From TrEMBL:
Chain ranges of the Thiolase C-terminal domain: 263-379
Membrane-crossing segments per the record: none
Stored SUPFAM superfamilies: Thiolase-like
Segments forming domain Thiolase N-terminal: 4-193
Protein name: Thiolase family protein
Annotated Gene3D superfamilies: 3.40.47.10
């Protein structure tokens, strides 16, 4: 297998863009990634397009990517549509890596886009429910027993949070502090949907959503796109790019009835692929679709001992300036969560971090970055996960 690098990245701002088309979002992100790489669209031999909800929200099925790349310069280049819940974007990266590493093509473009906002707000909730086993809906809802908030994944995350509190000393204040931290980080990110100064008291007093979760602890419905140009080190050097090494990309699938092995198993394979361990990681982007997930995932990734994540949060270790900054982009809770673009948005942040070009949110000495996604629901855990590791050239 050949060595693989990320030669260029680009993304739109994440937010609420009712008046923008998929094509306009994709064109912006792809154009930025190609410019960053010093490449042209006709360099690409293969495109992987990630999207999760367009079929249910906009009615666009079957060839979503072929329509979305219109105007980007990628028209006519072989394209494969990718859908893997919240891990869709990072799965597109995985497949682009595989195509280049195996020598199928020399250049692949991974691009993800999502438009979760619609004048009919109920459509986004339909997308989320569609990630459950449709033959088992009554069983799943009965098992959750959270009272049916209308946002089934927040009910699921509320249950994860309750289980976490039962086995650790974590409190609702800790969950609120994660939201405070990530909104402060997001205020430094011009591509973030939200960001600003929050207090723990404000987060706790906000509108309740499910269990311990209040509104600022929950990722918003977002629109946006992100893209990455994947190639070999030799080609990136020829272009004059400043590449990041794509050290590992691992995809995981959960086993029904099992909780807590999906992310640890996926991370183990990623660490083995990169030849690294948790102690080597300088910066992390993790899937905080709800704030408690950040603490849970820190432990699942082996970044600290079981039950120790709250202590690291309280001492400031996971904040910018701390020894292991988590979600310097603002995370999903602040930067936004356009499902099909989320994993690629994480990659954009990590590539920029290891290149040292994140401005006020730059992590000092960042050389190795890790991103984690988990999404869908198999019960009692998520259905899909991914872990991606990048390094400075």
């Amino acid at each position: 297998m050949r060595d693989v690098v990320v030669a260029g990245v680009g993304m739109t701002r994440f937010g609420r863009f009712l008046d923008r088309s998929f094509a306009s979002l994709v064109t912006e992100a792809v154009g930025a990634a190609l410019t960053d790489a010093g490449a042209t669209a006709d360099s690409a031999g293969l495109v992987y397009y990630s999207n999760s909800g367009a079929g249910l929200i906009q009615g666009q099925e079957s060839v979503r990517g072929q329509h979305a790349v219109r105007g980007s310069g990628l028209e006519g280049i072989p394209l494969i549509n990718v859908e893997n819940a919240c891990a869709s974007g990072s799965t597109a990266v995985n497949q682009a890596w595989l195509a280049v590493a195996a020598g199928q093509v020399d250049v692949a473009v991974a691009v993800g886009a999502e438009k979760l906002n619609h004048v009919d707000k109920s459509r986004a909730f339909v997308v989320m429910t569609a990630a459950l086993d449709q033959d088992r809906l009554d069983e799943i809802y009965a098992d959750l027993g959270e009272g049916g908030t209308g946002s089934v994944f927040m009910d699921i995350y509320a249950r994860f949070a309750r289980w976490y509190r039962e086995r650790t000393d974590a409190t609702q204040n800790d969950f609120a502090q994660v939201a405070v931290k990530n909104h402060a980080h997001g205020a430094l990110n011009p591509k973030a949907q939200y960001g600003g100064v929050l207090t723990v008291e404000e987060v706790l007093a906000a509108r309740p959503i499910s269990g311990d979760l209040t509104l600022p602890m929950c990722a918003p419905m977002s629109d946006g796109a992100a893209a990455a140009v994947i190639t070999t080190p030799e080609i990136a050097t020829r272009w004059g790019a400043e590449p990041a090494r794509l050290l590992a990309t691992a995809i995981g699938a959960a086993r029904p009835g099992v909780y807590g092995e999906l992310v640890p198993d996926t991370a183990r394979r990623a660490y083995e692929m990169a030849g690294l361990g948790p102690e080597d990681i300088d910066v992390v982007e993790c899937h905080d679709a709800a704030s408690p997930a950040e603490l849970i995932v820190m432990e699942e990734l082996g970044l600290c001992e079981p039950g120790k994540a709250p202590a690291l949060l309280r001492e400031g270790a996971t904040t910018l300036g701390g020894r292991l900054p988590i979600n310097p982009s603002g995370g999903l809770g602040s930067k936004g969560h356009p499902v099909g673009a989320t994993g690629l948005g994480q990659l954009v942040e990590l590539v920029d971090q290891v290149r040292g070009r994140c401005g006020d949110r730059q992590v000092d000495g960042a050389r190795i970055g890790l991103a984690e996604n988990a999404g869908g629901y198999i019960g009692p855990d998520a259905a899909a996960a991914s872990v991606t590791i990048v390094g400075a050239a």
